[in-house]
Each structure stands twice: as C-alpha cells, then as structure tokens.
Design goal:
174 residues, eight-stranded antiparallel β-barrel, elongated, 10 strands, mainly beta
Length: 174
C-alpha cells in the first residue's frame, strides 16, 4: 500500500510541474488475465486493474511506471491414483506488479500502434516478491488503449507464473 501511495504522489508532483506541455499521461484500465504453462495447471483466468503514468520523451517514445493488480481463480477437482480418490482446492492467486517501462508509438496521430517492454517486481499475497518482465503491443485511438501483454512473474510455490493479458484503458494527458 505504501508503494502505491508513493507512486501516486510522484506522478501527481510531476503532473503539476509540466501541466502546460501535455507531456504526461495517466492511463487507467483493466482487462482479463490468462495463465500459461505451469500456472494454467492450477489456475483459471481472472481480471486485472492497472494504473500507468508515462512521460513523452518525444512524440513516439514514452517512459513510465505501471502498477497492476492481477487475480487468478484457483482450480478444484479430484484425482484417482491406485484406486484412491483425493480432492483438491487451490487458493485464488493475487499478483501485484510494479514495472518501469518504455513504449514506442509507431505513428504520432490518429490510430497509433505501439509496442512496449517493462521490468520490475511481481509479488503475491504472501509478499513473496520476484523480478519479472512484460512485453506488450496494441493500438491507441482518441485516448483509448486496446492492448495485449505477456508477463513473466517468476516462480511462486514451485509454479512458474507467466500469463497473457488483454487490456482496455483510457489515457488522460497533462
């Protein structure tokens, strides 16, 4: 929680200093998460909420910070081994991520395709924190963002937790 408040304070101070230039962007969004690999064995899809602040270095390149709150529903079921049936329930997973990222916009106006990459920390509900990465792409149009990303969140409880994410958001420019 302290990290979120610090991030919001930094973004607010920076926006106030450069409000006339409209070089700052705040994107609020959300979407769906889909676990891949090992993670898909124990988890179902879930939801994500995101807050991102970026600074336009030039019309095509942005640098910034992102916070995302991702959820995954745990699977339940039963297995029979040698005639013995056992049931299992896997707890839901929540992953908080804090990333430093760069975004390249291919055009300066109208429909703006983009790609981006970020590195940072991914932590789950037990505060087990891992270093990870994200790669993304999508389009921006009239403040709206439609994108997809792939995130490598490290290993938690002997499960390599990677996931695919579909996002929709809106960008406010300052």
């Amino acid at each position: 929680m302290k990290k979120i408040l610090l991030l919001m304070a930094i973004v607010a101070v920076c926006f106030g200093a450069n409000a006339q230039d409209k070089k700052w962007n705040v994107t609020v969004g959300g979407g769906l998460t889909f676990p891949t690999g090992d993670a898909s064995d124990g988890y179902k899809s879930g939801f994500v909420g995101q807050l991102q602040g970026t600074y336009n270095i030039n019309p095509k390149f942005e640098l910034g910070l992102e916070y995302a709150y991702s959820t995954f529903k745990g699977k339940s079921g039963s297995e029979t081994i040698m005639g013995i049936t056992t049931s299992y329930d896997i707890d839901d997973r929540i992953i908080n991520s804090f990333l430093a990222k760069g975004i390249y916009n291919f055009t300066e106006e109208g429909v703006r395709p983009f790609i981006g990459a970020g590195v940072g920390t991914f932590s789950h509900k037990d505060n087990d924190t891992k270093f990870g990465y994200a790669v993304e792409g999508g389009i921006k149009y009239n403040g709206f963002l439609f994108g997809a990303s792939y995130r490598g969140a490290g290993s938690f409880d002997d499960v390599t937790f990677n996931f695919f994410q579909l996002n929709v958001g809106y960008t406010f420019r300052f």
